[in-house]
Amino acid sequence: MRLLQWSLLCFALVQTLPIMAQTGSITGTVTDGSGPITYANVYLKGSSTGTATNEQGAFELQNLSAGTYTLTVQVLGFQVHQEKVALGKGENVLLDVVLQPSQEQLEETVVTGTLKAVRRSDSPVPVEVYSPTFLKKNPTANIFEALQNVNGVRPQINCNVCNTGDIHINGLEGPYTLVLIDGMPIVSGLGTVYGLFGIPNALIEQIEIVKGPASSLYGSEAVGGLINIITKNAIEAPTMTVDAFGTGWGEYNLDLGAKLSVGKKTDLLLGVNYFNFEEVIDNNGDNFTDLTLQDRISIFQKWNFKRAENRIFSLAGRYFYEDRWGGELQWTPEFRGGDEIYGESIYTSRWEILGKYQLPTTEKLMLTFSYNDHQQNSVYGNVPYLADQRIGFGQLTWDKKVGRHDLLVGTALRYNYYDDNTPATFLADEVMIPGLFIQDEITLAKKHSALMGLRYDQDPRHGAIVTPRLAYRFKPTENDILRFNAGTGFRVVNLFTEDHAALTGAREVVIAEALDPERSYNLNLNYLKKIYADNGTYASVDASVFYTHFTNAILPDYDTDPNQIIYDNLDGRSVSMGLSANLDVAFPSGLKILMGATFQDVSQTENGITQRQILTESYTGTWALGYTFNTLQLTVDYTGNLYGPMRLPVLGDNDPRTPFSPVWSIQNIQFTYKGFDQIELYGGVKNLLDWTPNRNNPFIIARANDPFDNDVVFDASGNAVPTANNPFGLTFDPSYVYGPNQGIRAFFGMRYRIN
After folding, report:
1. Fold topology of 109-229
2. Mapping DSSP to helix (H, G, I), strand (E, B) and coil, where does residue 265 land?
3. DSSP letter at 482?
4. What does each C-alpha distance from 14 to 10, 25, 627 come to in angstroms?
5. What is the pLDDT of residues 174-185, one digit of tens each?
6. pLDDT of 58-88, one tens digit each?
7. Nearest-CA neighbor of 327 among 381, 383, 249, 251?
8. Alpha-carbon gap, residue 251 to 197, rounded angstroms
9. Using alpha carbons only, how large is the chain's radius of gyration in Å?
10. What is the pLDDT of residue 28?
11. Gap between the terminal Cα atoms of the chain
12. Rounded mean pLDDT of the chain?
């Protein structure tokens, strides 16, 4: 009997072997070119055969009959990948699938517009989102430069010598832009000028930008808009990342990121950024450095703690140190602060801590807090500027849904401390500003929602400050969204932390009167259209009309007296209005197009006279074109921007420098090769047109040969008099600047990632 059973079993196996020999399999890996993609859906179109990738990004489809299949790979955040696979009898096909990031970012989660995590398309406040993929199209050593290809956002260099700058949104000055890290307003005041450098790009999850006032949620400084830099969650970050590049000018940048597990309930995210530039370059021949020399390091840590019921608790800190100088080529540190050789030397030391803690209650109560200390030791020629700023911020919010109402109620407390050695600061400015705010997002109907908000701050210096807000969202179809926003903004001014021109050069700073807070009103109409073509092409159009009216604005007056910078309260109005549009297209072939344009009119009316605001362009354009050659595993990115003329701060009618900038453009090209496991190689050319602002100008820095005005003759009124060696009657002035002095240069880098 047992012999009969063995015979039947052997017979069955023999009969099965031909069948097994006729089946095949499709195996492979799914990556984004630099690392594996886990839990991606892999299936054969039109069948029930499918699987998901494992933690190494691998997949396997077995027992497949001979034939031609359409393999489909799909995962959130990436374009759907489809390819034909011809499978012979018993054949095993091995594939390496590289997914391209999705150009459609509408379903990303955003928090900046309402302080709540919502889908981008559901937010009543228009929020622009930029991912690390966008930043990699034009690799930079800091966030300041990375924003140059964002429509309506312009990095403005404020100093020809030390190259510090700020961010303009829709033509409004840099101090009107509030910069947040993980929703905390820790980059402000002195940090607005220097704090945008040294944030490790390896730690950035995404950058969210809101254009228009947001003071009802974020208080002072959120007048023109805000930029929220959101860092990665330690739990979801890769195990290790390395990104290093250098340029033909001698710039070297290193970004390191690492994730560590500390016990079973704690994850640590570590990031380090180091940047060095030590080449003394003077291509325009004025005996001044074209690019400030820099030695900078930033160290960032973020701790995520696992708690019961997935409650949030994170704690992060950053330390930043920088030594930068620019000036005459002969300058060395022993000349620092003297009047023999001109140099601008800045030592910056800054540390920050921020955290988020969800209270262990049935109600959703969130405590957020931050504190930073910024110490600056600077000299501008023989003028010292020693400053210390501390900002503490705490906020408790209650998030509650009641029927059609989505409520957010909060209380905030802000601590400001500022002291410097300038004559304008007689005593250290120390103030506590308590605030209350409420926000109600109402679902009016299936396609309609509204948001109303109100904030109350009690400033001991200026009394009660109330900032209301209103937003309306109409979604007639799944592919159309119309948003209307109105709000107010306010800001307390501190010139010496925000306007570098007040410290550099020979102009005298005149503060004509006690400066009141700046106040503004803003209207914004936004329309978003999504288009899905039958051939797989995706496109979106995002257009906005904006209007901002300032009842008081503190802007530098360079025109009344060429030897002075005058600051006073506005006796009139200041207006910024315009139209902005973005076009985003992704073709199935791999071609991606992102283009934007902004047309704006920024003017100031005082004493019945209206004139364009200084250093503000009338139009701007940006683009990012990318194409991937899949067979070569090579991606080409062509990025650039275009700026219209802007009015410049000349030293009176005799100044031979042009009073308006020309139309100018910075363009870049990059090639990225992803043919190695976990390694990307990239390189290209920046500033392809080799544009610098000294074109068509006799000089950029006035009196660069006499930076201490030793040979300038002044009349009884203090005005410079034309002489044989000073035919235009000028004084030393490095404030005439609107673009970078850095010309064409090649760059090469490598990215390495371990998951």
Report:
1. Ferric Hydroxamate Uptake Protein; Chain A, domain 1 (2.170.130)
2. coil
3. E
4. 6, 21, 52
5. 777 788 888 877
6. 899 988 988 899 999 887 667 778 889 998 8
7. 381
8. 14
9. 29
10. 92
11. 57
12. 85
3-state secondary structure of 175: helix
Task: State if pTM tops 0.90.
Answer: no
Matching CATH number, 2-98, of 2.60.40.10, 3.30.565.10, 1.10.357.20, 1.10.3720.10: 2.60.40.10
- β-partners of residue 304 are 267, 314
What pLDDT was estimated at residue 16? 42
The tokens describing 634, both together, are: 């090579």
In the prediction, which pLDDT does 694 show? 87
Scan for tokens 């363009």, then name that residue: 667
Domain ranges of the chain: 2-98, 109-229, 230-754
Reduced to 3 DSSP states, what percent helix, strand and coil does the chain have, rounded to the nearest 5?
Answer: 10, 55, 35
> CA 583 to CA 117: how far, in whole Å?
25
Instruction: Work out the average pLDDT over 353-372.
Output: 93
Distance CA 639, CA 626 (A): 9
What secondary structure does DSSP assign to 302-368, as a single string? EEEE--GGG--EEEEEEEEEEEEEEEBTT--GGGTT-SSS-EEEEEEEEEEEEEEEE-SSSSEEEEE
CA-CA distances (angstroms) from residue 538 to 79, 475, 533? 10, 19, 6
Going 562 to 565 to 569 to 570, the CA torsion angle's sign is positive
> Do residues 451 and 470 touch, judged by C-beta distance below 8 A?
yes
pLDDT value of residue 185: 74
Average pLDDT for residues 571-582, to the nearest whole number?
90
CB 746 within 8 A of CB 247: yes
Task: For residue 215, name the pLDDT band (cuts at 50, 70, 90).
Answer: low
At 134, list the tokens: 């966008």
CB 213 within 8 A of CB 177: no
CB-count exposure of residue 41 (10 Å: 0-12, 13-18, 19+): middle
DSSP 215: H
Task: Yes or no: say if 274 and 294 are a contact pair by the CB < 8 Å rule.
Answer: no
Homologous superfamily of the 230-754 domain (CATH): TonB-dependent receptor, beta-barrel domain (2.40.170.20)
Close Cβ partners of 249 (under 8 Å, ≥ 6 residues apart): 277, 279, 281, 291, 742, 745
CA distance linking residue 688 with residue 73, whole number of Å: 38
213-227, 442-456, 659-673: which has the minimum mean pLDDT?
A: 213-227
Handedness of CA 699, 284, 693, 344 (dihedral sign): negative
- What's the rounded mean pLDDT across residues 632-648? 94
Question: What distance in Å separates the CA atoms of residue 550 and residue 224, rounded to the nearest whole number?
Answer: 11
Beta bridge partners of 320: 298, 350
Residues ≥6 apart with Cβ < 8 Å to 179: 167, 185, 187, 188, 191, 192, 195, 196, 226, 227, 229
Helix or strand or coil: residue 147? helix
Instruction: Go through 258-284 and write b for each residue having 16 or more CB atoms within 10 A of its CB, e for each that does not.
Output: bbeeeeeeebebbbbbbbbbeeebeeb
Residues 538 and 531 sit within 8 Å (Cβ to Cβ): yes
**Strand 177-181 vs strand 225-231: parallel, antiparallel, or unpaired?**
parallel
The percentage of residues in the chain with a pLDDT greater than 90, rounded to a whole number, is 43
Contacts of residue 423, defined as CB under 8 A and 6 or more positions apart, other chains included, come to none
109-229 has the same fold as 2-98: no
The span from the CA of 110 to the CA of 230, in Å, is: 10
Rounded distance between C-alpha atoms, residue 677 and residue 56, angstroms? 12
Q: How many residues does the chain have?
A: 755
User: What whole-number distance in Å separates Cα of residue 293 and Cα of residue 326?
Assistant: 6
